[in-house]
Amino acid sequence: MSDHSSRLCHVAPVFRVADLDRSLSYYRDQLGFEVEFNYEGFYAGVLRDACHIHLKCSGRVDREQGTFEGDEHLDACFAVQDAQNLASRFASTGAVFSVPLRSMPYGREFYVKDPDGYILGFVQSAEAQHT
Within a domain: residue 68? Predict the structure, then answer.
């Protein structure tokens, strides 16, 4: 599949949120995303460093949040260059951590939770730690 015209450009998970304005504020103010678009107040996109998330004002899918977090599941995972620096920045803005910064065999990581309970993982690979 080397046909340039069929290349994927980016992926954007779509999170169903209860309050679009609250979510946009969180992603902008706590996580440093910029609002990419806001379509008629019910569907919006945020962007940071070519990473996209779409937000749709709608009822959330029911899940057992405590179990989801306890099992350390993720809704989205971002590769980062410096997990410690980013975790410090997020902590200074009041982001809610579900997993604090930690070292794992594959690298360093931390998870944050958005206002609707979505869990975002930020992972610095072991290889990136040595470059």
Answer: yes
21 backbone φψ class: left, alpha, beta (φ>0; ψ -120 to 50): alpha
pLDDT tens, residue by residue, 7-46: 888 899 999 999 999 999 999 999 999 999 999 999 999 9
Nearest to 84 by CA among 29, 41, 124: 124
Joined together, the tokens standing for residue 71 give 């099992």
3-state secondary structure of 61: coil
The answer to whether 119 and 69 have CB atoms below 8 angstroms apart is yes
- Dihedral, CA atoms, 70, 30, 121, 59, nearest 10 degrees? 60
What local confidence, expressed as pLDDT, does residue 131 receive? 57
**CATH at 62:** 3.10.180.10
pLDDT at 2: 60
Question: The domain containing residue 64 runs over which residues?
Answer: 10-129
* Number of independent structural domains in the chain: 1
Q: Does 64 fall in a domain? A: yes
CB atoms within 10 A of CB 13: 14
